[in-house]
Amino acid sequence: MKQNETLGIIDIGSNSIRLVIYELDQNGAYRNIHEDKYAARLSNAVETNGQILRPSLDKAITVLKQFKAKCEAFQTHRIRAAATAAIRNATNAQEIIGWLEQETGLEVECVSGDQEAYYGFLGVIQSIDLADGYVVDIGGGSTEITVFRDRKRLHSISLPIGAVNSYARYGGEDTWSNDHIEALCNQVAEALREHDWVRQHPGLPLIGLGGTMRTLAKIEQKRTQYSLPVTHHYEISAASMDNMCKSLPHLTSAQRKKVPGLAKDRADIIVPGILILRTVFDMIQGDHYVVSGAGLRDGILRDLMSPLCPEAPNALEISVRNFIHFGPPVPEQHLKRVHQDAVVLYRALMGEAPEPADARILYTAAMLHGAGKQINYFRYTQHSSYWIMNAGIYGLSHRETVLTAIAADYHPKKRTPQLLNKHRDILKDSDERHAHRLGSILRASEAINRSESISAVMATTKNGSLQMHFICTAEPLMELSGLEDALKDLEDAWEVTSVYSIQQASKE
User: Fold this and answer.
1) Is the model's pLDDT at 309 over the cut of 80?
2) C-alpha to C-alpha distance for 226 and 236, rounded to whole angstroms
3) Cβ distance 162 to 43 under 8 Å?
4) 65-98 tens-digit pLDDT
5) Can you tell me the mean pLDDT for 261-289?
6) What is the pLDDT of residues 174-198, one digit of tens each?
7) What confidence score (pLDDT) does residue 307 get?
8) In 267-414, which residue ranges form alpha helices assigned H by DSSP?
9) DSSP string covering 355-392, please?
10) Dist. CA 482–CA 74, nearest whole Å
11) Helices and strands, counts by H and E, the chain
């Protein structure tokens, strides 16, 4: 069996240096197998003449050597290192790159502002199924803003204004003065007024990536005691962000370090970060904030893997494919039949094709309901449910994630009500009934596909009765033994009766 390839990507940012190692299989599927970071804060190393001196790179070089050694431990033969704002904006950028390459043996790419914006856009577009929006990446030394429509990038800009260099310019005091707050916000606004496109797409979501956005999401989740501790695709209202923006600058450093969800090493730069973010939001006339857990490193990976067509056409399908390829050895054709039959039952019961959200839930639950077998075969549906909620599946909202997990581990008398009760802060009032309906469909479809005896399913609903017709290649003993209980749950959830007939498949 051929060993899968590993790929290392190092992001030499203005605040942190980060490493991610991906495993890639022969079919193009990939997964993250290692991550690490070090807060080198290269933006603070910039001298008044714009240079970064060689002694200021000692820690960065040490970290890069250690990251290279980690890649070698994972037998990684391809390493791509990308340097962003702190180095590209230095007046001796090429000299810095030369020092890094000579002393680490790595080949270092100095990424332009437009390239950084593009990679961030690619990271978002492959992880969130939104058609339109603004991508905002606040780094230590720059902020990249991209507007996209119909999943196509229209415009990008890179501002040399980031959380670290803004703190160095306007911070320094324990709390922020109103004058310094106003000065930073005005600097961002003035830089954006030169670009008309920034204000030409009002009402779109702001999709934030990077440490500032993730930290703000964690703060808000802790404040509201949010029931799903996943930041990717978490949504924050404009009002909630305004409240954080009003409070955080006026806390002392010691007080900020005690804010739940706020890491101590980010207690200083979170203030300029949120001020930049809120100013951009006001300028674009955004609707709400969405957190992206994917960013520059994910975009670089996508660009390397698919240079001719880097934009992911469907974030959910690619994410599910990746999980299946690295999951337990379940025949993918079997999973597709479970999904196909679930859609047949849904159409019969609802009288129409699944709406987009339901289509995503049924697809994901059908394809991943056996994922928990990789942890332990026994009680695998419980493991699958936990895994679905915590794995950060791309392309699903948090509501869709919870409903998918419930459908994958549908037990209407105990575990399903427990999950519904736990996640009431995420679900709609109507979702209790909806969860039972979707879960019962998936359970019936699993029973229909317990073995390989039923080759086709047809279904209609007439006068409150679900009528199913099975085309069989053999007597469906295994299927029927599990279908009886599954149909009882389906009848209760949909308030119907059910009957089925069996026809032997033609041998011609």
Assistant:
1) no
2) 12
3) yes
4) 999 999 999 999 899 999 998 999 999 999 999 9
5) 95
6) 889 999 999 999 999 999 999 999 9
7) 65
8) 270-284, 296-305, 315-325, 332-350, 356-368, 380-390, 398-408
9) PHHHHHHHHHHHHHTTGGGGT-STTHHHHHHHHHHHTT
10) 45
11) 19, 14
CB-CB contact of 86 with 141 (8 Å): yes
Strands 454-462 and 465-472: antiparallel
φ/ψ of 207, rounded to 5, equals -100, 110
Q: Is the pLDDT of residue 311 over 70?
A: no
CA distances from 63 to 37, 99, 148, 396, 487 (A): 9, 14, 35, 35, 59
Task: Count other Cβ atoms within 10 Å, centred on residue 495.
Answer: 9
Q: Please identify which residue in the block is written with the tokens 């999709």.
A: 207
- Helix, strand, coil percentages, rounded to 5, for the chain: 50, 20, 30
Q: Mean pLDDT of all residues in the chain?
A: 92
For residue 326, the model assigns a pLDDT of: 85
DSSP secondary structure string, 111-156?
A: --HHHHHHHHHHHHHTT---SSEEEEEE-SS-EEEEEEETTEEEEE
Burial 375-384 (b: 16+ CB within 10 A, else e): eeeeebbbbb
Spatial neighbors of 343 by CB under 8 A, at least 6 apart, are 353, 354, 359, 362
Helix axes 356-368, 380-390, angle to 10 degrees: 130
Q: What is the DSSP letter of 204?
A: P
State the distance between the two ends of the chain, measured CA to CA, in whole angstroms.
39
Residue 439: both structure tokens together: 């879960």
pLDDT value at 1 more than 50: no
Q: In Å, what is the CA distance from 244 to each residue of 25, 247, 249?
A: 43, 5, 9
Sign of CA dihedral 350, 351, 356, 360: positive
Residue pair 393/31 in contact (Cβ under 8 Å)? The answer is no
Sheet holding 78-83, edge to edge: 30-38, 17-24, 5-12, 78-83, 108-110
Nearest CA to 151 out of 134, 130, 174 is that of 130
Q: Is the pLDDT of residue 260 over 50?
A: yes
Contacts of 89 (CB under 8 A, 6+ apart): 46, 50, 141, 142, 160
Say which amino acid occupies 306.
Answer: S
Query: What is the distance between the alpha carbons of residues 174 and 227, in angstroms, rounded to a whole number?
Result: 33
